[in-house]
Amino acid sequence: MLETEGLQGMTEYRIHITVPGLPFKHEARWEPLIEHLERHHEALGPVIGWHAEETAWITVSTAAESEAAAVRTGVDALVDSLVLAGLGNLYPSEVEAEAIDRELELA
Known about the structure:
Elements: E1 11-20, H1 27-40, E2 47-52, E3 55-64, H2 67-84, E4 94-100
Antiparallel strand pairs: 1-3, 1-4, 2-3
């Protein structure tokens, strides 16, 4: 559980979202996506990687009251960015969520 002011009762989640049809070798297609995520959803700390040559794996993190709320935040941000990056024909095909257990040192 996160124990910082305003976040009591919240858990930090890492959300992994796969998007098929986004080839690694075509940087011109996926760079606008990650740039949009980084610019407009910076707080989620988006990272992009690949499961296979044609399937991107986007990871974001967020604090939420439930796993469902965290997944919705991550998927909504990704879908928004897909559309605005000109990739509205692509969509998430698989979503995994994991709760992150760690103690934060408060200064």
